[in-house]
Amino acid sequence: MAEGALKRAAFTREAPDVRRQALVAAREAQGRARLVPDQRDSRRIAKTINFGIIYGMSPFGLSKELGISLEEARAFIAAYFQTFPGVQVYIDRVVDEARKTGYVSTLLGRRRQVPELTSADRSQREFGRRVAINMPVQGLAADMIKTAMVAIHRLLERRNAR
Questions:
Q1: Model confidence over 113-149: pLDDT tens digits?
Q2: Residues 14, 18, 21: CA angle, nearest 5 degrees
Q3: Fewer CB atoms < 10 Å away: N or C end of the chain?
Q4: How far, in Å, CA of 15 to CA of 27, rounded?
Q5: How many Å apart are CA 131 and CA 138, to the nearest integer?
Q6: What proportions of the chain, in percent to the nearest 5, are helix, strand and coil?
Q7: Are the C-beta atoms of residues 77 and 58 closer than 8 Å to each other?
């Protein structure tokens, strides 16, 4: 499946297939199949890899979360970005922009300052990086929900609903 099709599928009922494909691609690139003992565990592993990597989980964090070696976690992350290069492009772009401007924003314009990116403390810089990656995505989801809630409230008011 081409990367564009994978992105589209992520927003449809086919999303579980995207997770499976990410896991299979990572496994194949690694040449290891020992992580997938059953379908339920496979789903958990794929979700951990997808969401962990997308939101900035380090190889160390992934290795602890999945109970695998640091080398295996690094291989999974490398295989993930090889399979989904657009994710790496997005991450690099959003973090670079946040370093330049000092903030990230959602598509609807809500901003979050990210001073941690310039901290002398490495753990604070890594936290800032995760915030820069996460906020535009999670923030947009929150913006959309809030916008829908306001629209529903106004509709109910116009109809004098209780």
A1: 999 999 999 999 999 999 999 999 999 999 999 999 9
A2: 130
A3: C
A4: 18
A5: 10
A6: 75, 5, 25
A7: no
